[in-house]
Amino acid sequence: MLIEVLQAKIHNVRITQTELNYTGSITIDADMLDAAGLIANQKVLIVNNNNGERFETYTIIGERGTGVIGLNGAAARRGQVGDELIIMSFAQMTPEEAKTHKPNNIYPDRNNRII
After folding, report:
1. Domain that residue 40 falls in
2. Residue 22 is among the residues annotated as catalytic for this protein
3. For the chain: N or C, fewer Cβ within 10 A?
4. pTM as predicted
């Protein structure tokens, strides 16, 4: 049996851009993706702390060092610039593996820079 557990979390980042006329996804600064251990096209769950929206999409690599967090396509309707998000990924593993697994959580500062 496999269970899903938190793999990684990028906690309280701010939306820096929205682009409705774009293929749906979330653009994330490459530094944040690397720090969290996420890759391009990986499925993520997003929580918007400002409006309570929860939705799934996939990651796109953003320009390194810019702090970019961009909601694209239909996801752009789920938040606005300045909203705080929590971005989470999950992994499947056995209960035995899950007991020793440590999620890779990062906590960027108010300007989306890794602390």
Report:
1. 3-94
2. no
3. N
4. 0.95
